[in-house]
Write a sequence for this structure.
């Protein structure tokens, strides 16, 4: 009987020591922590798209035109028109053409298509497959502006800008992605962005993408992310106005503060940006 009691006490003591060791982290290792995953993903089917399959002028149910020759805040040299010579659908592509010709008060004509009021989006994945113009003085862009005026000065930059693709012809192989806000913009030299070298921008089609969630804006080319702007916990609308609807813009500017830094080579015109498709995939919560 005494031996049984002694054995029982030894077993209890061993169990007690094991419990102390475990609580102190000296026992068997726990499972490796799993990395956190984003709660956001994008649908696999577009909710809005244009495949540019119908020849003629761009689909008026999806696109409108910004018109004017006033420089667009950047001392640009083109007059944006709604003429079919400057924007048309042919051979399965949207073709925006910048032409050297008297137009309005300017000596160049071009087109600037906008989806405002016909395609306005809060968050999503935006894919645009395009081939860019080439030559000194061209300044094509695929970008987004706020569709409303919810913040600050009721305009730019307070309500935000997302540049999915910007390119200047004097720096042919370099691609740019940027965001602009009241706190972060090029006018005060605080804008956030990045650039990447990509060969064949004007010879081949590439896919330009923006992935926009409540947590971040990420810019990609051909599936490769090269810029991410994350929303910090301290950010308010001056840093992060990206919680309201935005619309798409497709255009070729000529000259201007950036595109014209090294002048304009008139011998290159006409120049075209060809767009194979525009597809918008909505954000879904996991």
């Amino acid at each position: 009987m005494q031996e049984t009691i002694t054995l029982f006490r030894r077993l209890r003591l061993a169990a007690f020591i094991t419990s102390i060791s475990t609580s102190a982290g000296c026992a068997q290792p726990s499972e490796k922590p799993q990395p956190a995953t984003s709660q956001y993903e994008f649908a696999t089917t577009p909710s809005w798209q244009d495949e540019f399959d119908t020849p003629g002028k761009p689909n008026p149910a999806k696109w409108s035109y910004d018109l004017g020759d006033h420089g667009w805040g950047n001392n640009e040299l083109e007059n944006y028109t709604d003429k079919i010579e400057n924007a048309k659908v042919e051979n399965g592509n949207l073709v925006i053409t910048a032409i050297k010709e008297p137009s309005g008060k300017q000596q160049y004509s071009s087109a600037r298509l906008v989806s405002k009021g016909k395609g306005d989006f809060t968050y999503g994945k935006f894919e645009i497959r395009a081939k860019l113009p080439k030559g000194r003085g061209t300044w094509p862009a695929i970008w987004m502006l706020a569709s409303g005026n919810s913040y600050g000065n009721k305009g730019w930059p307070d309500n935000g800008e997302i540049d999915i693709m910007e390119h200047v012809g004097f720096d042919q192989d370099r691609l740019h992605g940027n965001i602009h806000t009241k706190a972060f913009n090029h006018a005060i030299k605080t804008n956030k962005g990045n650039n990447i070298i990509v060969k064949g921008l004007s010879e081949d089609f590439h896919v330009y993408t923006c992935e926009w969630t409540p947590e971040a804006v990420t810019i990609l080319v051909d599936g490769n992310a090269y810029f991410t702007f994350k929303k910090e916990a301290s950010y308010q609308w001056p840093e992060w106005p990206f919680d309201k609807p935005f619309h798409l813009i497709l255009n070729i500017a000529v000259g201007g503060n950036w595109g014209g830094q090294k002048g304009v080579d008139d011998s290159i015109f006409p120049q075209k940006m060809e767009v194979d498709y525009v597809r918008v995939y909505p954000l879904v919560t996991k």
